[in-house]
């Protein structure tokens, strides 16, 4: 089988950077395509590229700009011709850095910016990269013996538990909750459309838990003991889920521990 190819969108830091590290270290000879808005300023990612110069490709891509996404897809098509895994990991809590605690904090600008990064971006990524995932070798996940149930690629959208409508008992965080709920719906739609074709593309949402990143930093004091994960720990959990995915698990959202997250 050809070497698997993974693309990580939002790879300059946090979960995205750790996904790159994990795949490069634990799944040789996989190739990783890491995208971010400003590669020149992504010091740690550039260091990783120096370490894995033959397996890691860094591309400029602002997920808020469709032209960037289209250009990156063309470059990946020209260089690799296919994809086996795409992870959309970039996220914006709110342009202010804090979620809205009440209706008076809501602004159209804040909602639009958050939805653009967290929902529209991953969906447009799927638009341009789905053809490459349909040409993948199925190098990630679990493949059954029955050809009709085999998949060629996997789309992973990083969601959040606060995006669950059924689990919302506290309110607040209008922009972030709405963006992740909409991302869940987009992923469900993708799973239906890309599940009809042959070869099939598995599409899931994964909740990483509360991770020690810049996004969650203002709220660390409210996290119960033992529930604040390092990026390394969270990605280990999430990649274990990815490697167990098949077409029977598409169109669902999963917590970091593998339990299903209610929509």
How would you describe this protein?
The protein is α/β, with parallel strands linked by helices and 263 residues long. Helix content is 37%, strand content 16%. The chain contains 6 helices and 9 strands. It has helices at residues 14-26, 43-51, 66-79, 108-133, 174-196, 231-242; strands at 5-9, 31-36, 56-60, 85-88, 151-158, 200-207, 210-211, 228-229, 253-255. The strands form 2 sheets. It has a 7-stranded parallel beta sheet with strand order 3-2-1-4-5-6-9, sandwiched between helices. It is globular, with a radius of gyration of 17 Å.
Helix content: 25-40%
Our measurement of the CA-to-CA distance between the termini, rounded to an integer number of angstroms, reads 36 Å
Element order, helices and strands? EHEHEHEHEHEEEHE
Parts with pLDDT < 50 across at least 5 consecutive residues: none
Chain-wise SSE layout:
Elements: E1 5-9, H1 14-26, E2 31-36, H2 43-51, E3 56-60, H3 66-79, E4 85-88, H4 108-133, E5 151-158, H5 174-196, E6 200-207, E7 210-211, E8 228-229, H6 231-242, E9 253-255
Parallel strand pairs: 1-2, 1-4, 2-3, 4-5, 5-6, 6-9, 7-8
Helix pairs in contact: 1-6, 3-4, 4-5
Task: Put the structure in a nutshell.
The protein is an alpha/beta fold and 263 residues long. It is 37% helix and 16% strand.
What key phrases describe this protein's structure?
263 residues, alpha/beta, 7-stranded parallel sheet, two-stranded parallel sheet, 6 helices, 9 strands, 37% helix
